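Subject: for your reference before the review

Hello V.,

The reviewers asked for a structural picture of the protein, and I figured it would be easier to keep everything in one thread rather than splitting it across files. Below is the amino acid sequence we used in the manuscript, unchanged from the supplementary table.
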Amino acid sequence: MTAKPKPSPLFLGIDTGGTYTDAVLWSEAGGPNGKVLAKAKALTTRHDLAVGISGAVDAVLEMAGTDPAAIKLVSMSTTLATNALVEGQGGRVALVMIGFAEGDLARDGLKAALGTDPVVFCPGGHDVHGNAAKLDLSGLEAALPELEKSVSGFAVCAYFATRNPAHELSARNLIRDRTGLPVTASHELSAKLGGPRRALTTLLNARLISMIDRLVAATEGFLAARNIAAPLMVVRGDGALVSAAFARQRPIETILSGPAASLVGARHMTGLDDAVVSDIGGTTTDVAVLDKGRPRLDPEGATVGGFRTMVEAVAMRTFGLGGDSEVALEDGALNPRILLGPRRLVPLALAGLMHGEAVTSELERQLRAPNPGRMDGRLAVRTGVPERLAAGLTGAEAKLYELIGAVPQALDRLLTSNAQNATLNRLVSRGLVHIAGFTPSDAAHVLGRQANWDATAARLGAELFARRRDGRGQFIAASPEAISERVLTALTRLSAEVILETAFAEDGLDGAATVAHALVQRAVDAHPGIARLSVALDRPVIGLGASAPLHYAGLTELVGNRCVVPQDTDVANALGAVVGQVRVSAEARVSQPKEGLFRVASGESVRDFNDEAAAIAAAEKDVRAIAAGRAKDAGTDSAEIEIASEYRVSTVEGQRMFIEAHVVAVASGRPRIAV
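And here is what came back from the structure prediction:
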């Protein structure tokens, strides 16, 4: 009797974006690229992420008629961390600087990133060879009782911790013992030198922990409720997969997770090895380059929200431009331009869908006023995050936060002074409050090019925006349709600008943004001027995102090459999440503090050897073991490990002099699946 062939395992991909949560069910069977069996979307519910996840996944399971037990791997990407940094959101954390001076905060944007969060300076740290200064944590110990009441976590960075992490470990253990709060130590995230930038990366990681923890917990809870007993993976910023537990400890590595997954998905769907990939979402547009089938990585570390981190990620340029971008007017111009982003608003159409007459009645009231108001078409609503994340509010912030509820309130009723407007913006930055207002998504609803939300609320918002005055005192548009056309045209034009800006920056050209703006402006102007300018990309554009077919329809003539929008472009991130590989690395440094002594710093250990060859061999053995352990923790049982060594030497009077060696192990493999 012939045995029945075993069915191919099913893979569930999830992408939690700023506006939508996508799900895709994929099978390796069905051709060389496998087959998408079902796909679905649901609104991302920031107050309870499990609601949006369950909405998308349940729809996929129902469409495919699949037994949840047949799913053997679940993998997710997310733009939540990226969006949080772009929008300046995250938990309040305390930064502990060991061996640094207060002046070091001024370097690498650390002071700007810190904002009003507390910082504690402690004596200590190490030198370049790992030799210790005297550590004194008494100041930190004294500050902990007050800090634990007002922060959600801690970030610890010590001078030259990458050469000896002992002082970071001491501070981390003290904080955990006394407070029980999450602690991120800088040596856990990067082996690179550059203390202030490493501190910045650590600070941002600590801010993101609660957000990513809530996402993973929501997903795990949903999977358990549906009896899906499969490993949960998360896409990292370089496109690799890691286990959910790994991502919980190092959430900073999930910045650009969604865009990295989209690159993997774009390559998988189109087969194009060389392309510019532009992924437009609700909050951001992410642009990157595919070369020879692989995304370019940023050797200097990912830049998001204006901060240069030490996170190795795709060389992605993230712009605050999306379907839910804030629509504004250029100040003081006779014929003001439409400005978009970088802040995301809740589209009025979406607010109307969720809250009905509470939104439309306020917009109608404002339309009945004889003159337009400065805050017309704007409402505030709580995000619904847990109350503990509102710790550390000032008196003014707490008072205003109490006034804002779960139902949107018009800003012209809520705010009574300019100072309150600044207070509201701080609540938005903390992720506690959303602002609803007119966006490109609303414009698309007015013109009938999008129909999934409340078109009535969108039209009311467009009418209010069209009543705004230009520099001559005239209405800026004659009708809701006219202003909506201008908004969508502006979005396509700005999309072309950010794509060209990325291309120019990749080519190393200065003033990329200015040149891109000038070229696109000439392309759309009826009178382009005396000098004829044109530009063409050397490779096609792959347009990703649910709104790409709408916003990228006129892109080809602006960028000088074809724009390919794949069939499953709306779930590219979710698809990319399930077709990737686990990839982790480990590093060791071998230095020579004095002649004849070779010091190996690897992981959390520092050891001395009297022989160079023995030190190098020990470093290679260490990184192999560390990489193997990390690969297992990251979710693969079949890792292949490659080791590369780089030496710095000099020649003095014909004699070779060892300076330093850098040893790196990279482990990669397919994620383990449920049996």
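For the response letter, the relevant points are probably these. The mean pLDDT is 87. Residues 218 and 389 are 17 Å apart (CA to CA).

Happy to draft the paragraph if you're swamped.

O.
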